[in-house]
Amino acid sequence: MDLVLLKHYVRIQAMTSRFIFTRIMSISPKANLHIVTPHDDTIAPNVNAMLGNHTSTTADFEVWSDEPGTIYYIFVRDADFNVMPNKSLIMAGNDPRIVRSGQLNVTADQRKQVLLDGFTITEPGYWTLYLVSEDSAGNISSIQGAGFSL
Known about the structure:
single chain, mainly beta
């Protein structure tokens, strides 16, 4: 993005591979101008999950993030993993040990329901929904989880 100050005007120009966007705005001579781009955002979002009802065939969770973006989640039996899944695995969601995976677009602090069904828990153990959130600048939260035992 280019920013050019001209006496009492500012010209902001942003380019993509196909388009050039230009905006000219008048400003006060005493104005303090601060431009924030997505690249200025280096703070990872915070993500949370809360367990709702669960049975051997369904589980529901509420998930939310303090920034708009995408929440990625996986639902696993903890005994199938020697260590906690990493962010890349949660975001890809394609490991055969994963019972369910998905992603949700979220707005800041708005809770969304995740209903997991279509599975049958036949072995006792601890089951966890692991999740991360990615904001528009590409910052990724720490891993959070919520789970239950059967």
